[in-house]
Amino acid sequence: MTTDPLIIDAQKSIEESFIPEMTDDAGFQEQMSLFAQLENMRRDLEDALGRVEKRAEGMKSHLLEQMVMFGIKNMNVHGLSIYSQNKIYVSKKSEENGVTKQMVCDALDEIGRGDMVADGYHSSSLTSLVKEMKSEDGSGVPEQLEKLLNITEEVLLLSQKR
Question: pTM of this prediction?
Answer without folding.
Answer: 0.55
